[in-house]
Amino acid sequence: MEDESAPERASVGPIRACVHDTVTAYFQHLDGQASHDLHRMVIEQAEAPLLEVVMRECAGNQTRAAAALGINRGTLRKKLRQYGLED
């Protein structure tokens, strides 16, 4: 295991557990029916609120938000448009 700081470990665990629990519940609700495009659905459901919160925490500064997300500013702008989150 990599040597991570305590805040990083604390923030990763709950998110992973939340996704795990949500996907487990999703399959239980399917009641045997096939699922389709699960990866896309999970990414979209997680990415939009992630972008909203990061943009709020960065006071709308796209350069800071992109740095916090580890993506370039152009990618951030594209994703903000994709989810209808542009100013």
From TrEMBL:
Coiled coil location: none
Protein name in the entry: Putative Fis-like DNA-binding protein
Highest taxon, organism lineage: Bacteria
Keyword line: DNA-binding
Species this protein is from: Spiribacter curvatus
The keyword rRNA-binding appears for this protein: no
Keyword match Chloroplast: no
InterPro entries: Fis_DNA-bd, Homeodomain-like_sf, HTH_Fis, Trans_regulatory_Fis
Residues spanning the membrane: none
Similarity annotation: Belongs to the transcriptional regulatory Fis family.
Pfam families in UniProt: HTH_8 (PF02954)
GO molecular function: sequence-specific DNA binding
Ranges for domain DNA binding HTH: 43-83
Biological processes per GO annotation: regulation of DNA-templated transcription
Xref: SUPFAM superfamilies: Homeodomain-like
